[in-house]
Amino acid sequence: MKYIKNNKIYVQLYDLNYILYNGAGIIPKSVFDKALKQAVNMNDDNKYDYIEFDDIHEINYFEGLTFIINKDEIDNMSMNELFEFYNYSKEELDHIGNLFKSVHRAMDLITLKSEYNKERHRFETLKYLYNKRTKEKEMIKVKSLKPSTLNTANNNV
């Protein structure tokens, strides 16, 4: 994910790693250098950490990458809107996958594969966010139950 604050853009290491290994157009040298330095040390504990970029070329580059989810847009979505976005992304994946069957030129296949990978990256992020938000909602429900309700539920099991 990415977000903009105080004329800076912050991008998760997970997305930077994707860009390095899958490509996303012509990567500005400053982005490549920062991303490479950080991605070498990426692991499960830090892959959702944000890296700061403040150069206008870096900001413009990341703003143009629509397959990287904008955190502010997601944070303002209801559960239904997030689910609709998730479904839209899944439909796009299916659509691109179906196009593979009808394409014969190598360049078209390469372009489709790139588009598919970008959409899959966006889909996986949405899936993670939707699951995370669903779990948080379930946790809120559980915390809001009265102790007597919990005891009754346990006795019925």
Can you put this structure into words, describing what you see?
This protein has 157 residues and is mainly α. The protein has 2 domains: 2-63, no CATH class; 77-144. Helices cover 66% and strands 8% of the residues. It is built from 7 helices and 3 strands. The chain has helices at residues 13-22, 29-39, 56-63, 71-75, 79-100, 106-144, 147-155; strands spanning 2-5, 8-12, 50-53. A 3-stranded antiparallel beta sheet has the order 1-2-3. Strand 1 (2-5) and strand 2 form a beta hairpin. Helix 1 crosses helix 2 and helix 5 (79-100) packs antiparallel against helix 6 (106-144). The longest helix has 39 residues, at 106-144. The protein is globular. It starts with a strand and ends with a helix. The relative contact order is 0.12.
Short description:
This protein has 157 residues and is mainly α. It has seven helices and three strands. It has two domains: 62 residues, no CATH class; 68 residues.
The profile of the biggest β sheet is:
3 strands, antiparallel
Shape: globular
Which blocks of ≥5 consecutive residues have pLDDT under 50? 140-157
Distance between the termini: 41 Å
Mean pLDDT across every amino acid position: 79
H/E element sequence: EEHHEHHHHH
Rg, Cα atoms, Å: 20 Å
What is the topology, as strand order, of the major beta sheet? 1-2-3
Instruction: Please tally the helical runs, counting DSSP H or I stretches of 4 or more residues.
Output: 7
Q: Structural class of the helix and strand makeup? A: mainly alpha
Helix content: 55-70%
Note the beta-strand portion: 5-15%
Number of strands: 3
Tally of structural domains = 2
